[in-house]
Amino acid sequence: MKGTRVQAGTAVVLLAVLVLLAVAGIFLRGTATTVDVANALVPPGPGHWFGTDAQGRDVFARVAVGTSIALASGLGAVAVGGGLGLVIALVCGLGPRWLDAVLVRLLDAVMAFPALLLALAVTMAFGTGLLTALVGVVVTVVPVFARTLRAEARRATSEPFVQAARTIGLSTPHLAVRHVVPYLGTTFSVQTAANVGNVILVLSGLSFIGVGAQPPTPEWGAMITEGLQNALTGQWWIGVFPGLALLVTVVAVNLLADSIPAVRAARLARRRTSRPRREATAPAPVEA
Amino acid sequence: MSTSVSAPSDRSARSDRSALSAEGLRVAYGDVEVVRGVDLVVRPGEKVGVVGESGCGKSTVALALMGLLASGGAVTGGVVSVAGGRVDYRDEKALDRMRGSQLSLVFQDPLTSLDPVKTIGSQIAEALRRHNPRMSRAAVRARCAELLTAVGVPEPERRLRQYPHEFSGGMRQRALIAIAVANDPAVLIADEPTTALDVTTQAQVVELLDSLVDRLGVAVVLVTHDIGLVSEFCDRVMVMYAGRVVEEVPSAALFDGAAHPYTRALLGSLPVPGRPRSDDLTWIPGAPPPLAALPAGCSFAPRCTWAQPECSAGQPPRVVVPSPGTTTGEVHVAECRRALEVVASSRSDESTEGEPRG
């Protein structure tokens, strides 16, 4: 229990730092792409905390902007992919059996490809760029959500309270939204946290090999590639700082994903033992 | 009321007055027929018990009437009317409208029949809003509190904000009953509503059902294997065996006048407080037959102490049993060729229990 609290606390602190960095990034967009050849390859110091790159751009500003790009695209891709996955899971779980069978086979086929490879294929087919890379990543996220949530949705339909909800005349869509979706809550949040880290990693990977975000964009993967050119001559800071940011993000998100079920269980246990919060406002007549 | 259920003129007359009427209801899972022509007529405000061993089709009848059979199951025959309107089991939308507003069902297990992540109030409100979309928030709130009060939950305002895990088993069953009667249904089917509860709570729940019948005029179909409970609570008892109603008897006549050997055997296996220890309880040898391979003739014949060779030859006749304790209009029918002999024997040896060997 204590370990969980430390873990959750660490995750929250790291994520808070990252969010601050991302917010700073929104205001540093101009700075991040300002070329200043006179101050190229300055090592980290008071003027430029993370130093400057070969074109004299401030690495801290670039990492900050990279953070906002990474968090926004990671959350965005998972929200869209997870949402689609949830819809497919509900159709599979509550719809006709034949449709379930067809959809599951399709999902299996998509899942058979490694995420990076599949995303790569999509960018190859529709052109390189951050947006197509995002589309590719969404395609890999959908089946992950759909498969796990489908199993849960199927289980939900055999829960007595879902059966009981039918006896009051709820239609299937009502049932899905009001009783099955809340049932999937924990699984969905764990999947979201687990996938955000992975999605950010895959997106950076795509940019790293040159099919994602393209060079002037301060995306971490693209920055690491640029940094590689200077690493051999001793300017390590250009590639290391975006790499560290990527590492910290993925670790923080995964720590969070790990602690969600424990935190939820603890909260439920607390609520179970707590006294009722408020007394009734008006004493109601009690019938014998 | 006539005992012949097949006359067409009689049929229409019946369904006009009944809250629920099922005529010749048949249910099959694949090729196996699990309910084989059940007639069930419930008048408004009437309390009808359905009893039998496990696997006799009691719960299947309840689920079939609601249109909630598990996948693979289907109503294959019969006419069902609820509150005067004929039910079409292929029309899912109409079924949704019927469920919870005209016909309600309370399940056996109150501990798992409520959504654990929603408050009791929101679950009662859900039932109200489903059938009254225009009801205002204030009206819904007021009605929820009123319903909880009606089912005997004190401090309804506070209770409405609580989650199911904050309710005891008996309280949860009360909440479920509140949900079931929220829209003033014509009939409430209670499928073993007390089985999961302890004895004192059972009595309270039965008392509650009784008071709801009086106050709301709702008819109750009580599905249970507790023949003692049924005789206390119900006006009329349907005894089911192997997917058929083998005896329909007014509760007043149940103990002294049961005419089917199966009913007598069920009564014989019922422990009665105060009866001398030396009187052993009787049991029924064997188990109900597999529905996929029913014996020819009377399904109960292989286990029946009254059985004669001709019992296995053909379907037993429906015998109308004259019961002195019953008023006119009450039906007592047993599906047994020796029904009258069974009644006669039970009346002659009132005080001595046990099965006469015939």
List the helices and strands and how they pair.
The complex is a heterodimer of chains A (288) and B (358).
Chain A: H1 2-27, H2 29-32, H3 59-94, H4 97-111, H5 115-126, H6 130-157, H7 160-167, H8 172-183, H9 185-208, H10 220-231, H11 237-273
Helix pairs in contact in A: 1-3, 1-11, 3-4, 3-6, 3-9, 3-11, 4-6, 5-6, 5-9, 6-8, 6-9, 7-8, 9-10, 9-11, 10-11
Chain B: H1 8-17, E1 20-29, E2 32-42, E3 47-51, H2 58-66, E4 73-82, E5 85-86, H3 92-98, E6 103-106, H4 120-131, H5 137-150, H6 156-160, H7 169-181, E7 187-191, H8 199-216, E8 219-223, H9 227-233, E9 236-241, E10 244-250, H10 254-257, H11 261-268, E11 318-320, E12 333-335, H12 339-348
Parallel strand pairs in B: 3-8, 3-9, 6-7, 7-8
Antiparallel strand pairs in B: 1-2, 1-4, 4-5, 9-10, 10-12, 11-12
Structure report:
The complex is a heterodimer of chains A (288) and B (358). Chain A has one domain (2-263): Orthogonal Bundle (MetI-like fold), CATH 1.10.3720. Helix content of chain A is 74%, strand content 0%. Chain A contains eleven helices and no strands. In chain A, α3 (59-94) packs across α9 (185-208), α5 packs across α6 and α9 runs antiparallel to α11 (237-273). The two termini of chain A are 45 Å apart. The model of chain A is unreliable at 275-288 (pLDDT under 50). Chain B has two domains: 20-234, P-loop containing nucleotide triphosphate hydrolases (Rossmann fold); 252-272 and 281-287 and 298-349, no CATH class. Chain B has an eight-stranded mixed β-sheet, with helices on both faces. In chain B, strands 2-1-4-5 form a four-stranded antiparallel β-sheet, sandwiched between helices. In chain B, α4 (120-131) packs parallel to α7 (169-181), α5 packs across α7 and α7 runs parallel beside α8. Classes of the chains: A mainly alpha (288), B alpha/beta (358). Chains A and B meet through α7 and α8 of A and α3, β6, α4, α5 and α6 of B.
